[in-house]
Amino acid sequence: MAFSLASLFGLKTHDTTPKTLVVLKHRCPQNHRCPAVSACPVGALSQKGQKAPTVDRERCINCGKCTRYCFPKALVMEKA
């Protein structure tokens, strides 16, 4: 039976499952300039007018930084 010290002491372990950025358009209010666009360290997010942002998959490094700037939680990291 395999176990880890983290599970023995009830600690959360870091999930190493690959995740990808997803835009949930139904959660995006689409009434303002998205702050997550300028927060992206590699410029993978873009926005036309006030529409929901789009992700350039070639540039996105799946760091999740943009999700911290999206208050309605329209940008989420989901398991690939």
TrEMBL record:
It comes from Sphaerochaeta associata. Pfam families: Fer4. This is 4Fe-4S binding protein. Residues 51-80 form the 4Fe-4S ferredoxin-type domain. InterPro entries: 4Fe4S_Fe-S-bd.
